[in-house]
Amino acid sequence: MAExxxxxxxxxxNKKIELPIYAPTAxxxxxxxxxxxxxxxxxxxxxxxxxxASCDSTITYIDGDKGExxxxxxxxxxxxxxxxxxxxxxxxLYGELPDATQIEEFETRVTRHTxxxxxxxxxxxxxxxxxxxxxxxxxxxxAMSAFYHDSTDISDPWQREVAAIRMIAKMPTIxxxxxxxxxxxxFVYPRNDLDYASNFLNMCFSVPAxxxxxxxxxxxxxxxxxxxxxxxxxxxxxxxxxxAGSSGANPFACIAAGIACxxxxxxxxxxxxxxxxxxxxxxxxxxxxxIARAKDKNDPFRLxxxxxRVYKNFDPRAKVMKESADEVLELLGIHDNETLKVAKxxxxxxxxxxxxxxxKLYPNVDFYSGIILEAMxxxxxxxTPIFALSRTVGWISQWKEMIAxxxxxxxxxxxxxxxxxxxxxxxxxKR
Length: 431
Ligand code: CMC
Known about the structure:
This protein is mostly helical. Helices cover 50% and strands 7% of the residues. The chain contains 18 helices and six strands. It has helices at 36-40, 76-82, 85-94, 100-111, 120-125, 133-147, 157-182, 196-205, 216-228, 236-246, 251-262, 270-281, 287-295, 316-331, 338-352, 354-358, 366-376, 383-404, and strands at residues 2-12, 15-23, 30-31, 60-63, 68-71, 74-75. The strands form two sheets. Strands 1-2-3 form a three-stranded antiparallel sheet. A three-stranded antiparallel sheet has the order 4-5-6. Residues 235, 266-268, 270, 294, 302-309, 359, 361, 364-366 line the site of carboxymethyl coenzyme *A (CMC). Pathway: Carbohydrate metabolism; tricarboxylic acid cycle; isocitrate from oxaloacetate: step 1/2. InterPro entries: Citrate_synth-like_lrg_a-sub (IPR016142), Citrate_synth-like_sm_a-sub (IPR016143), Citrate_synthase (IPR002020), Citrate_synthase_AS (IPR019810), Citrate_synthase_bac-typ (IPR024176), Citrate_synthase_sf (IPR036969), Citrate_synthase_typ-I (IPR010953).
Protein backbone atom coordinates (compact mmCIF):
# COMPACT_ATOMS: atom_id res chain seq x y z
CA MET A 1 0.00 0.00 0.00
CA ALA A 2 1.62 3.28 -1.06
CA GLU A 3 1.23 5.92 1.62
CA UNK A 4 0.88 9.54 0.51
CA UNK A 5 1.71 12.61 2.58
CA UNK A 6 -1.96 13.55 2.36
CA UNK A 7 -4.54 13.01 5.08
CA UNK A 8 -8.29 13.50 5.28
CA UNK A 9 -9.51 15.48 8.27
CA UNK A 10 -12.81 14.57 9.84
CA UNK A 11 -14.37 17.03 12.25
CA UNK A 12 -16.48 15.14 14.80
CA UNK A 13 -18.07 17.34 17.48
CA ASN A 14 -15.08 19.66 17.33
CA LYS A 15 -12.67 16.74 17.59
CA LYS A 16 -10.29 16.55 14.62
CA ILE A 17 -9.43 13.11 13.34
CA GLU A 18 -6.66 12.74 10.76
CA LEU A 19 -7.09 9.80 8.42
CA PRO A 20 -4.21 8.59 6.19
CA ILE A 21 -4.72 8.51 2.42
CA TYR A 22 -3.20 5.80 0.22
CA ALA A 23 -2.34 6.04 -3.46
CA PRO A 24 -3.31 3.15 -5.73
CA THR A 25 -1.47 2.19 -8.92
CA ALA A 26 -4.65 3.26 -10.74
CA UNK A 27 -8.07 4.49 -9.64
CA UNK A 28 -9.23 6.73 -6.79
CA UNK A 29 -7.19 7.32 -3.64
CA UNK A 30 -8.37 5.52 -0.52
CA UNK A 31 -8.97 6.95 2.96
CA UNK A 32 -7.89 4.58 5.73
CA UNK A 33 -10.67 4.53 8.32
CA UNK A 34 -9.44 1.54 10.32
CA UNK A 35 -8.73 3.62 13.45
CA UNK A 36 -11.91 5.69 13.13
CA UNK A 37 -13.90 3.72 15.71
CA UNK A 38 -11.07 3.70 18.22
CA UNK A 39 -10.46 7.44 17.81
CA UNK A 40 -13.96 8.76 17.18
CA UNK A 41 -16.35 6.09 18.53
CA UNK A 42 -18.27 6.10 15.23
CA UNK A 43 -18.75 3.62 12.41
CA UNK A 44 -19.12 4.40 8.70
CA UNK A 45 -22.30 3.38 6.87
CA UNK A 46 -22.01 1.94 3.35
CA UNK A 47 -24.50 -0.82 2.52
CA UNK A 48 -23.57 -2.50 -0.75
CA UNK A 49 -19.97 -1.23 -0.34
CA UNK A 50 -20.53 1.52 -2.92
CA UNK A 51 -17.60 3.60 -1.56
CA UNK A 52 -15.64 1.08 0.45
CA ALA A 53 -12.45 -0.75 -0.52
CA SER A 54 -12.60 -4.05 1.36
CA CYS A 55 -8.98 -5.03 0.69
CA ASP A 56 -5.90 -4.13 -1.30
CA SER A 57 -5.25 -6.33 -4.32
CA THR A 58 -2.79 -6.66 -7.19
CA ILE A 59 -4.90 -8.90 -9.42
CA THR A 60 -7.55 -7.08 -11.45
CA TYR A 61 -8.39 -3.46 -12.15
CA ILE A 62 -11.54 -1.94 -13.63
CA ASP A 63 -11.86 1.65 -14.80
CA GLY A 64 -15.63 1.96 -14.89
CA ASP A 65 -15.70 5.36 -16.62
CA LYS A 66 -13.36 4.31 -19.41
CA GLY A 67 -14.82 0.81 -19.68
CA GLU A 68 -11.42 -0.78 -19.09
CA UNK A 69 -10.63 -4.17 -17.53
CA UNK A 70 -7.05 -5.24 -16.77
CA UNK A 71 -5.84 -8.62 -15.50
CA UNK A 72 -2.48 -7.97 -13.77
CA UNK A 73 -2.23 -4.85 -15.94
CA UNK A 74 -3.01 -6.50 -19.29
CA UNK A 75 -6.15 -5.27 -21.14
CA UNK A 76 -8.86 -7.89 -21.50
CA UNK A 77 -9.18 -7.21 -25.24
CA UNK A 78 -5.51 -8.14 -25.82
CA UNK A 79 -5.80 -11.27 -23.73
CA UNK A 80 -9.07 -12.33 -25.40
CA UNK A 81 -7.44 -11.85 -28.78
CA UNK A 82 -3.94 -13.22 -28.22
CA UNK A 83 -3.86 -15.38 -25.10
CA UNK A 84 -5.69 -18.53 -24.00
CA UNK A 85 -7.50 -19.48 -20.82
CA UNK A 86 -4.79 -21.50 -19.07
CA UNK A 87 -2.25 -18.76 -19.74
CA UNK A 88 -4.72 -16.28 -18.20
CA UNK A 89 -5.09 -18.64 -15.22
CA UNK A 90 -1.31 -18.62 -14.76
CA UNK A 91 -1.25 -14.82 -15.03
CA UNK A 92 -4.02 -14.36 -12.46
CA LEU A 93 -2.54 -16.90 -10.04
CA TYR A 94 1.13 -15.91 -10.21
CA GLY A 95 1.10 -12.31 -11.42
CA GLU A 96 3.18 -12.62 -14.62
CA LEU A 97 2.76 -14.16 -18.06
CA PRO A 98 4.52 -17.54 -18.15
CA ASP A 99 7.45 -18.38 -20.41
CA ALA A 100 7.21 -21.43 -22.68
CA THR A 101 8.48 -23.89 -20.04
CA GLN A 102 6.31 -22.46 -17.28
CA ILE A 103 3.11 -22.70 -19.31
CA GLU A 104 3.92 -26.23 -20.42
CA GLU A 105 4.49 -27.31 -16.82
CA PHE A 106 1.35 -25.53 -15.64
CA GLU A 107 -0.80 -27.10 -18.35
CA THR A 108 0.56 -30.53 -17.48
CA ARG A 109 -0.23 -30.02 -13.79
CA VAL A 110 -3.79 -28.85 -14.49
CA THR A 111 -4.36 -31.67 -16.96
CA ARG A 112 -3.22 -34.29 -14.43
CA HIS A 113 -5.93 -33.15 -12.00
CA THR A 114 -8.99 -33.16 -14.26
CA UNK A 115 -10.60 -36.38 -13.00
CA UNK A 116 -12.74 -36.32 -9.87
CA UNK A 117 -12.65 -38.94 -7.11
CA UNK A 118 -14.67 -41.88 -8.39
CA UNK A 119 -16.86 -41.83 -5.30
CA UNK A 120 -18.02 -38.35 -6.23
CA UNK A 121 -20.06 -40.02 -8.97
CA UNK A 122 -22.27 -41.45 -6.20
CA UNK A 123 -22.57 -38.03 -4.68
CA UNK A 124 -23.93 -36.68 -8.01
CA UNK A 125 -26.42 -39.52 -8.19
CA UNK A 126 -27.97 -38.38 -4.89
CA UNK A 127 -29.39 -35.28 -6.59
CA UNK A 128 -32.74 -35.19 -8.35
CA UNK A 129 -32.31 -35.27 -12.11
CA UNK A 130 -34.21 -32.01 -12.46
CA UNK A 131 -31.94 -30.16 -10.01
CA UNK A 132 -30.50 -26.95 -11.45
CA UNK A 133 -26.83 -27.61 -12.32
CA UNK A 134 -25.87 -24.66 -10.07
CA UNK A 135 -27.55 -26.38 -7.11
CA UNK A 136 -25.57 -29.53 -7.89
CA UNK A 137 -22.34 -27.54 -8.24
CA UNK A 138 -22.75 -25.75 -4.90
CA UNK A 139 -23.19 -29.13 -3.21
CA UNK A 140 -20.47 -31.02 -5.06
CA UNK A 141 -17.81 -28.30 -4.79
CA UNK A 142 -18.52 -27.92 -1.05
CA ALA A 143 -18.18 -31.68 -0.74
CA MET A 144 -14.72 -31.62 -2.35
CA SER A 145 -13.33 -30.87 1.11
CA ALA A 146 -14.59 -34.33 2.11
CA PHE A 147 -12.69 -35.94 -0.77
CA TYR A 148 -9.43 -33.97 -0.84
CA HIS A 149 -8.36 -33.71 2.80
CA ASP A 150 -4.75 -33.31 1.81
CA SER A 151 -5.33 -29.81 0.42
CA THR A 152 -7.46 -28.22 3.13
CA ASP A 153 -4.75 -27.01 5.52
CA ILE A 154 -4.75 -23.34 4.63
CA SER A 155 -1.61 -22.59 6.65
CA ASP A 156 0.45 -24.72 4.25
CA PRO A 157 1.33 -22.83 1.02
CA TRP A 158 1.82 -26.12 -0.85
CA GLN A 159 -1.67 -27.35 0.07
CA ARG A 160 -3.12 -23.99 -0.99
CA GLU A 161 -1.37 -24.39 -4.33
CA VAL A 162 -2.66 -27.94 -4.82
CA ALA A 163 -6.20 -26.85 -3.92
CA ALA A 164 -5.98 -24.07 -6.53
CA ILE A 165 -4.82 -26.43 -9.28
CA ARG A 166 -7.41 -29.03 -8.33
CA MET A 167 -10.21 -26.52 -8.46
CA ILE A 168 -9.21 -25.08 -11.86
CA ALA A 169 -8.76 -28.59 -13.26
CA LYS A 170 -11.89 -30.22 -11.85
CA MET A 171 -14.45 -27.47 -12.27
CA PRO A 172 -15.11 -28.23 -15.99
CA THR A 173 -15.50 -31.91 -15.08
CA ILE A 174 -17.97 -31.05 -12.31
CA UNK A 175 -19.96 -28.61 -14.49
CA UNK A 176 -20.13 -31.15 -17.33
CA UNK A 177 -21.17 -33.92 -14.93
CA UNK A 178 -23.93 -31.71 -13.51
CA UNK A 179 -25.16 -31.21 -17.08
CA UNK A 180 -24.94 -34.86 -18.12
CA UNK A 181 -26.75 -35.93 -14.97
CA UNK A 182 -29.56 -33.42 -15.60
CA UNK A 183 -30.22 -34.88 -19.07
CA UNK A 184 -29.87 -38.52 -18.06
CA UNK A 185 -26.72 -39.22 -20.08
CA UNK A 186 -23.63 -41.08 -18.80
CA PHE A 187 -20.77 -39.04 -17.36
CA VAL A 188 -17.91 -38.51 -19.80
CA TYR A 189 -14.39 -38.73 -18.36
CA PRO A 190 -11.93 -35.91 -19.10
CA ARG A 191 -9.47 -36.43 -21.95
CA ASN A 192 -5.97 -35.21 -21.27
CA ASP A 193 -5.04 -35.04 -24.95
CA LEU A 194 -7.48 -32.14 -25.41
CA ASP A 195 -7.03 -28.49 -24.53
CA TYR A 196 -9.06 -27.08 -21.64
CA ALA A 197 -12.01 -25.77 -23.68
CA SER A 198 -12.16 -28.74 -26.08
CA ASN A 199 -12.12 -31.11 -23.13
CA PHE A 200 -15.08 -29.29 -21.57
CA LEU A 201 -17.07 -29.40 -24.84
CA ASN A 202 -16.27 -33.08 -25.19
CA MET A 203 -17.40 -33.87 -21.64
CA CYS A 204 -20.67 -31.98 -22.29
CA PHE A 205 -21.55 -33.13 -25.78
CA SER A 206 -19.96 -36.49 -26.54
CA VAL A 207 -21.84 -39.74 -25.94
CA PRO A 208 -20.50 -43.32 -25.90
CA ALA A 209 -22.71 -44.27 -28.87
CA UNK A 210 -20.91 -42.22 -31.52
CA UNK A 211 -17.80 -40.10 -32.00
CA UNK A 212 -18.05 -36.38 -31.31
CA UNK A 213 -16.10 -33.97 -33.49
CA UNK A 214 -14.88 -30.90 -31.66
CA UNK A 215 -15.01 -27.87 -33.92
CA UNK A 216 -11.74 -25.94 -33.19
CA UNK A 217 -13.38 -22.56 -33.83
CA UNK A 218 -16.09 -23.34 -31.26
CA UNK A 219 -13.46 -24.47 -28.75
CA UNK A 220 -11.71 -21.14 -29.34
CA UNK A 221 -14.96 -19.25 -28.71
CA UNK A 222 -15.51 -21.29 -25.54
CA UNK A 223 -11.97 -20.53 -24.39
CA UNK A 224 -12.60 -16.82 -24.98
CA UNK A 225 -15.76 -16.95 -22.86
CA UNK A 226 -13.69 -18.51 -20.07
CA UNK A 227 -11.09 -15.70 -20.36
CA UNK A 228 -13.69 -12.92 -20.33
CA UNK A 229 -15.20 -14.21 -17.09
CA UNK A 230 -11.97 -15.18 -15.33
CA UNK A 231 -11.84 -12.36 -12.77
CA UNK A 232 -13.56 -9.09 -12.00
CA UNK A 233 -11.98 -7.71 -8.82
CA UNK A 234 -14.13 -7.41 -5.66
CA UNK A 235 -17.56 -8.36 -7.08
CA UNK A 236 -20.21 -10.00 -4.90
CA UNK A 237 -19.10 -13.63 -5.33
CA UNK A 238 -15.39 -12.81 -4.97
CA UNK A 239 -16.11 -10.81 -1.83
CA UNK A 240 -18.13 -13.80 -0.59
CA UNK A 241 -15.15 -16.10 -1.18
CA UNK A 242 -12.86 -13.68 0.65
CA UNK A 243 -15.29 -13.27 3.55
CA ALA A 244 -15.79 -17.03 3.89
CA GLY A 245 -12.02 -17.53 3.68
CA SER A 246 -11.29 -14.83 6.26
CA SER A 247 -12.56 -17.15 9.00
CA GLY A 248 -10.04 -19.81 7.98
CA ALA A 249 -12.60 -21.98 6.15
CA ASN A 250 -11.10 -24.45 3.66
CA PRO A 251 -10.83 -23.38 -0.02
CA PHE A 252 -13.46 -25.79 -1.33
CA ALA A 253 -16.04 -24.47 1.14
CA CYS A 254 -15.11 -20.89 0.16
CA ILE A 255 -15.52 -21.53 -3.56
CA ALA A 256 -18.87 -23.25 -2.91
CA ALA A 257 -19.95 -20.05 -1.12
CA GLY A 258 -18.83 -18.05 -4.17
CA ILE A 259 -20.84 -20.27 -6.51
CA ALA A 260 -23.94 -19.79 -4.33
CA CYS A 261 -23.55 -16.01 -4.49
CA UNK A 262 -22.88 -16.00 -8.23
CA UNK A 263 -26.17 -17.77 -8.88
CA UNK A 264 -28.32 -14.68 -8.16
CA UNK A 265 -29.89 -12.91 -11.17
CA UNK A 266 -28.22 -9.58 -10.29
CA UNK A 267 -24.83 -11.33 -10.67
CA UNK A 268 -23.90 -14.45 -12.67
CA UNK A 269 -27.49 -15.64 -12.95
CA UNK A 270 -28.11 -12.69 -15.28
CA UNK A 271 -26.88 -14.64 -18.32
CA UNK A 272 -29.68 -17.19 -17.98
CA UNK A 273 -32.20 -14.46 -17.09
CA UNK A 274 -31.07 -12.37 -20.07
CA UNK A 275 -31.59 -15.07 -22.67
CA UNK A 276 -34.95 -15.92 -21.14
CA UNK A 277 -35.88 -12.23 -21.38
CA UNK A 278 -34.75 -12.00 -25.02
CA UNK A 279 -36.84 -15.08 -25.82
CA UNK A 280 -39.82 -13.62 -23.98
CA UNK A 281 -39.53 -10.39 -26.00
CA UNK A 282 -39.41 -12.64 -29.04
CA UNK A 283 -39.67 -10.09 -31.85
CA UNK A 284 -38.29 -6.58 -32.32
CA UNK A 285 -41.75 -4.99 -32.42
CA UNK A 286 -42.25 -5.92 -28.73
CA UNK A 287 -39.08 -4.12 -27.56
CA UNK A 288 -40.76 -0.76 -26.71
CA UNK A 289 -43.13 -2.56 -24.33
CA UNK A 290 -40.17 -4.05 -22.40
CA ILE A 291 -38.21 -0.78 -22.45
CA ALA A 292 -41.26 0.93 -20.93
CA ARG A 293 -41.48 -1.76 -18.25
CA ALA A 294 -37.78 -1.38 -17.40
CA LYS A 295 -38.33 2.36 -16.89
CA ASP A 296 -41.49 1.95 -14.81
CA LYS A 297 -40.68 2.42 -11.11
CA ASN A 298 -43.73 0.34 -10.16
CA ASP A 299 -42.60 -2.64 -12.22
CA PRO A 300 -39.77 -4.76 -10.76
CA PHE A 301 -38.69 -5.74 -14.30
CA ARG A 302 -35.13 -4.78 -15.27
CA LEU A 303 -33.37 -5.19 -18.59
CA UNK A 304 -31.19 -8.17 -17.83
CA UNK A 305 -27.63 -7.93 -19.16
CA UNK A 306 -27.78 -4.13 -18.72
CA UNK A 307 -26.15 -1.96 -16.09
CA UNK A 308 -23.23 -2.51 -13.77
CA ARG A 309 -22.09 -1.25 -10.39
CA VAL A 310 -18.66 -0.27 -11.69
CA TYR A 311 -18.97 0.24 -15.46
CA LYS A 312 -20.53 3.55 -16.38
CA ASN A 313 -19.54 2.92 -19.97
CA PHE A 314 -19.58 -0.12 -22.26
CA ASP A 315 -18.49 -3.27 -20.44
CA PRO A 316 -15.36 -4.17 -22.49
CA ARG A 317 -16.28 -7.84 -22.16
CA ALA A 318 -19.63 -7.18 -23.85
CA LYS A 319 -17.86 -5.73 -26.91
CA VAL A 320 -15.72 -8.85 -27.34
CA MET A 321 -18.74 -11.06 -26.64
CA LYS A 322 -20.80 -9.30 -29.34
CA GLU A 323 -18.08 -9.92 -31.93
CA SER A 324 -17.86 -13.53 -30.81
CA ALA A 325 -21.64 -13.96 -31.12
CA ASP A 326 -21.47 -12.86 -34.77
CA GLU A 327 -18.52 -15.20 -35.47
CA VAL A 328 -20.08 -18.23 -33.79
CA LEU A 329 -23.45 -17.84 -35.49
CA GLU A 330 -21.71 -17.38 -38.85
CA LEU A 331 -19.62 -20.47 -38.22
CA LEU A 332 -22.66 -22.53 -37.33
CA GLY A 333 -24.51 -21.22 -40.38
CA ILE A 334 -27.19 -19.55 -38.25
CA HIS A 335 -28.07 -16.53 -40.37
CA ASP A 336 -31.48 -15.62 -39.11
CA ASN A 337 -31.24 -15.73 -35.36
CA GLU A 338 -34.25 -13.86 -33.99
CA THR A 339 -32.78 -13.66 -30.46
CA LEU A 340 -29.63 -11.96 -31.78
CA LYS A 341 -31.78 -9.57 -33.81
CA VAL A 342 -33.81 -8.71 -30.71
CA ALA A 343 -30.61 -8.26 -28.67
CA LYS A 344 -28.99 -5.90 -31.19
CA UNK A 345 -32.14 -3.83 -31.62
CA UNK A 346 -32.76 -3.72 -27.88
CA UNK A 347 -29.20 -2.53 -27.31
CA UNK A 348 -29.61 0.17 -29.99
CA UNK A 349 -32.89 1.46 -28.58
CA UNK A 350 -31.70 1.39 -24.98
CA UNK A 351 -28.46 3.21 -25.80
CA UNK A 352 -30.47 6.08 -27.32
CA UNK A 353 -33.09 6.22 -24.59
CA UNK A 354 -32.81 9.10 -22.09
CA UNK A 355 -33.46 6.79 -19.10
CA UNK A 356 -30.56 4.46 -19.93
CA UNK A 357 -28.28 7.27 -21.13
CA UNK A 358 -28.76 9.39 -18.00
CA UNK A 359 -28.20 6.41 -15.68
CA LYS A 360 -25.21 5.26 -17.76
CA LEU A 361 -26.65 1.79 -18.27
CA TYR A 362 -24.78 -0.18 -20.93
CA PRO A 363 -24.79 -3.85 -21.97
CA ASN A 364 -22.70 -6.00 -19.65
CA VAL A 365 -20.93 -9.33 -20.18
CA ASP A 366 -24.17 -11.28 -19.82
CA PHE A 367 -26.00 -9.54 -22.66
CA TYR A 368 -24.48 -11.54 -25.54
CA SER A 369 -22.94 -14.57 -23.82
CA GLY A 370 -26.23 -16.51 -23.71
CA ILE A 371 -26.68 -16.18 -27.46
CA ILE A 372 -23.29 -17.78 -28.08
CA LEU A 373 -23.83 -20.54 -25.51
CA GLU A 374 -27.28 -21.34 -26.85
CA ALA A 375 -25.91 -21.55 -30.41
CA MET A 376 -23.25 -23.96 -29.14
CA UNK A 377 -25.99 -26.22 -27.80
CA UNK A 378 -26.05 -25.37 -24.09
CA UNK A 379 -29.40 -25.10 -22.31
CA UNK A 380 -29.94 -21.86 -20.36
CA UNK A 381 -29.47 -23.71 -17.05
CA UNK A 382 -25.81 -24.27 -17.99
CA UNK A 383 -24.99 -20.60 -18.56
CA THR A 384 -24.29 -19.75 -14.93
CA PRO A 385 -22.31 -22.98 -14.27
CA ILE A 386 -20.07 -21.96 -17.21
CA PHE A 387 -19.62 -18.54 -15.60
CA ALA A 388 -18.77 -20.32 -12.31
CA LEU A 389 -16.16 -22.57 -13.90
CA SER A 390 -14.54 -19.58 -15.63
CA ARG A 391 -14.56 -17.45 -12.46
CA THR A 392 -13.02 -20.20 -10.30
CA VAL A 393 -9.49 -19.06 -11.14
CA GLY A 394 -10.36 -15.50 -10.10
CA TRP A 395 -11.91 -16.65 -6.83
CA ILE A 396 -8.97 -18.89 -5.97
CA SER A 397 -6.38 -16.25 -6.93
CA GLN A 398 -8.13 -13.69 -4.71
CA TRP A 399 -8.44 -16.25 -1.90
CA LYS A 400 -4.73 -17.09 -2.13
CA GLU A 401 -3.83 -13.40 -2.12
CA MET A 402 -5.93 -12.87 0.99
CA ILE A 403 -4.53 -15.85 2.91
CA ALA A 404 -0.94 -14.79 2.15
CA UNK A 405 -1.63 -11.22 3.35
CA UNK A 406 -0.06 -10.70 6.79
CA UNK A 407 -2.60 -8.03 7.69
CA UNK A 408 -5.55 -10.29 6.93
CA UNK A 409 -8.28 -10.35 9.59
CA UNK A 410 -11.63 -12.04 9.83
CA UNK A 411 -14.20 -9.98 7.87
CA UNK A 412 -16.64 -8.57 10.38
CA UNK A 413 -18.75 -5.59 9.24
CA UNK A 414 -20.41 -3.37 11.84
CA UNK A 415 -24.01 -2.16 11.66
CA UNK A 416 -26.31 0.74 12.26
CA UNK A 417 -28.71 -0.82 14.76
CA UNK A 418 -32.26 0.52 14.33
CA UNK A 419 -34.16 -2.19 16.23
CA UNK A 420 -35.86 -2.05 19.63
CA UNK A 421 -33.83 -0.67 22.52
CA UNK A 422 -33.28 -2.91 25.56
CA UNK A 423 -36.60 -4.06 27.06
CA UNK A 424 -37.72 -6.68 29.59
CA UNK A 425 -39.21 -10.05 28.74
CA UNK A 426 -42.99 -10.29 29.24
CA UNK A 427 -44.64 -13.59 30.15
CA UNK A 428 -46.90 -14.96 27.40
CA UNK A 429 -49.99 -14.65 29.62
CA LYS A 430 -49.39 -10.93 29.97
CA ARG A 431 -48.82 -10.10 26.26
N1 CMC B 1 -32.79 -2.02 -16.12
C1 CMC B 1 -33.47 -0.92 -15.72
N2 CMC B 1 -33.03 -0.05 -14.80
C2 CMC B 1 -31.85 -0.31 -14.22
C3 CMC B 1 -31.09 -1.44 -14.57
C4 CMC B 1 -31.59 -2.32 -15.57
N3 CMC B 1 -30.91 -3.39 -15.93
N4 CMC B 1 -29.94 -1.46 -13.85
C5 CMC B 1 -29.99 -0.39 -13.06
N5 CMC B 1 -31.14 0.31 -13.29
C6 CMC B 1 -31.52 1.59 -12.64
C7 CMC B 1 -32.03 1.35 -11.23
O1 CMC B 1 -33.44 1.17 -11.21
C8 CMC B 1 -31.60 2.61 -10.53
O2 CMC B 1 -32.52 3.62 -10.85
P1 CMC B 1 -32.84 4.81 -9.77
O3 CMC B 1 -31.54 5.52 -9.56
O4 CMC B 1 -33.87 5.63 -10.45
O5 CMC B 1 -33.32 4.11 -8.54
C9 CMC B 1 -30.27 2.98 -11.21
O6 CMC B 1 -30.34 2.38 -12.52
C10 CMC B 1 -29.03 2.44 -10.50
O7 CMC B 1 -29.23 1.03 -10.27
P2 CMC B 1 -28.75 0.26 -8.96
O8 CMC B 1 -29.55 -0.99 -8.82
O9 CMC B 1 -28.74 1.21 -7.80
O10 CMC B 1 -27.26 -0.05 -9.35
P3 CMC B 1 -26.38 -1.18 -8.73
O11 CMC B 1 -24.97 -0.76 -8.96
O12 CMC B 1 -26.77 -1.46 -7.33
O13 CMC B 1 -26.76 -2.49 -9.57
C11 CMC B 1 -26.79 -4.18 -11.24
C12 CMC B 1 -26.00 -2.99 -10.62
C13 CMC B 1 -25.87 -4.93 -12.19
C14 CMC B 1 -27.20 -5.14 -10.12
C15 CMC B 1 -28.03 -3.64 -11.98
O14 CMC B 1 -27.63 -2.78 -13.03
C16 CMC B 1 -28.92 -4.76 -12.51
O15 CMC B 1 -29.76 -5.27 -11.77
N6 CMC B 1 -28.74 -5.17 -13.82
C17 CMC B 1 -29.48 -6.30 -14.37
C18 CMC B 1 -28.83 -7.60 -13.94
C19 CMC B 1 -27.52 -7.87 -14.66
O16 CMC B 1 -27.42 -7.75 -15.86
N7 CMC B 1 -26.52 -8.30 -13.87
C20 CMC B 1 -25.22 -8.70 -14.40
C21 CMC B 1 -24.11 -7.78 -13.97
S1 CMC B 1 -22.60 -8.06 -14.92
C22 CMC B 1 -22.12 -9.69 -14.55
C23 CMC B 1 -21.81 -9.90 -13.12
O17 CMC B 1 -21.13 -9.12 -12.48
O18 CMC B 1 -22.25 -10.94 -12.60
